[in-house]
Structure formats: structure tokens, C-alpha cells
From TrEMBL:
Highest taxon listed in the record's lineage: Eukaryota
TM spans (from-to): none
The gene coding this protein: XB5994047
InterPro entries: AKR (IPR020471), Aldo/ket_reductase_CS (IPR018170), NAD(P)_OxRdtase_dom_sf (IPR036812), NADP_OxRdtase_dom (IPR023210)
Protein name: Uncharacterized protein LOC100216027
Family under the similarity heading: Belongs to the aldo/keto reductase family.
Gene3D superfamilies: NADP-dependent oxidoreductase domain
Length: 215
């Protein structure tokens, strides 16, 4: 797990100083306010303090409502929890800023602890379409601006392969973390059918698997 220093057995400190819990509740395929309330209630009772969602999960609003309703029950406030959301492939590129602001609004909070590019290609484009390279770069710059504005505490990528990590996205203009422009986090894709044996990831990158995601 490069790029992070384990601050305790329950969290890791990213390379920009943000503390990220190592255990979190993934909400993929979890829909409906009642279902979210039950899941979040059980998670908080068990000590979970990190919650992962995404625009494409279509549950950000319900998750936000559940958290607002349940945090007082456990004597918690927004600053006690860690919320991750992700940029939809449909918004990769020029739509990044507005997409992030929508996620923040849906969740009913003032900032995200972590925002990820959900997929390295734009919806409707082939994976080998050269335009994806520029779209990823545009998204990354927009996320840096959101970080600088205090709307995101940390930024990263999701479902990237070694090729994506080394090819284009980590630009020297990055300001959110290390001077070399390395993002704090990368959520990687690994399944029994996709074993990524070589990770030539830049130093300073913290690799982790998303919580509660099925193959």
C-alpha cells in the first residue's frame, strides 16, 4: 500500500495529510431510502465511519438523508465521517465540476472527503479512443480546482490499470498533494478474471479496493 502512512490500525494518512478510514460501507446496488437507513444505521452501530457512493449508483440523495437522520443518534457530526463519491463516465471531461457539485448537493453536505474519477473512459466512447486521454486530464484539472476551493479533501481515480496510471493523468501541475502531482488514492480493479500482476504506479499513490463491490 504505497503512498499512505497507517496512522492507526483503523485508518491511513494520505500523502496530503487526509486521514482515510480503512473500513467503509460500499453502497453499490443499494437503493431506496429505507434500505439506506437500515444499512447506515447498522454500519454506524458497528463503528463504520466511511461511506462510499457514486453518481451512477443513483443513491447519493438517499445516503445523504440517512446520514443526516442518523448521525445525531450516535453523537456524530459531518466531520466524524468520511464520504467518497465518484465522477460518472458520462461527465468525464468538461462536465466534471458540475457533476461534483451535484453530488455534494445530493448528499446534503458542504464537501466530499474523497472524489474519484469512476472510470478511465467517457461513456459512449471506445476504451481505446484517444480522446479519453484528454478527457481524463480535463477532469483531473477540474478536480484540482475543486480541491483548492475546499470542496474536495482528496482526489483520486478508480478502475484504472497500470497503463492509465503511467500514461497521462498525473500532471506536474497537481497541487492537491505531492509536488510531483501524484493523487492521494487509486481504487483499483481486480477480479478473478483480471489479475494485475504489475503495478508501475508512481510513488506516493495509495492503492485500495472499494468497499462492498461485487465482481
Amino acid at each position: 500500500m504505497e503512498g499512505g502512512n497507517t496512522g492507526s490500525k483503523h485508518s491511513v494518512t494520505l500523502n496530503n495529510g487526509v486521514s482515510m478510514p480503512l473500513l467503509g460501507l460500499g453502497t453499490f446496488r443499494l437503493r431506496g431510502q429505507e434500505n439506506l437507513i437500515r444499512a447506515v444505521d447498522a454500519a454506524l452501530a458497528c463503528g463504520y465511519r466511511s461511506f462510499d457512493t457514486a453518481s451512477v449508483y443513483r443513491n447519493e440523495g438517499d445516503l445523504g438523508c440517512a446520514l443526516q437522520q442518523l448521525l445525531p443518534k450516535y453523537g456524530l457530526t459531518r466531520s466524524d465521517i468520511f464520504i467518497t463519491s465518484k465522477l460518472s463516465p458520462a461527465d468525464l471531461g468538461e462536465g466534471t465540476r458540475e457533476a461534483c457539485l451535484r453530488s455534494i448537493s445530493e448528499l446534503g453536505c458542504e464537501y466530499l472527503d474523497l472524489y474519484l474519477i469512476h472510470w478511465p473512459g467517457k461513456q459512449g466512447w471506445r476504451s481505446d479512443d484517444a480522446r479519453n486521454v484528454d478527457a481524463r486530464a480535463v477532469s483531473w484539472r477540474a478536480m484540482e480546482d475543486l480541491y483548492e476551493a475546499g470542496l474536495i479533501k482528496a482526489i483520486g481515480v478508480s478502475n484504472y490499470t497500470d497503463k492509465h496510471l503511467t500514461a497521462d493523468v498525473f500532471l506536474p501541475c497537481s497541487t492537491c498533494c505531492a509536488a510531483s502531482g501524484i493523487p492521494p488514492t487509486s481504487s483499483t480493479k481486480g477480479t478473478p478474471g483480471l489479475v494485475q500482476e504489475k503495478w508501475g504506479s508512481p510513488p506516493g499513490l495509495f492503492l485500495f479496493g472499494l468497499w462492498g463491490v461485487a465482481w
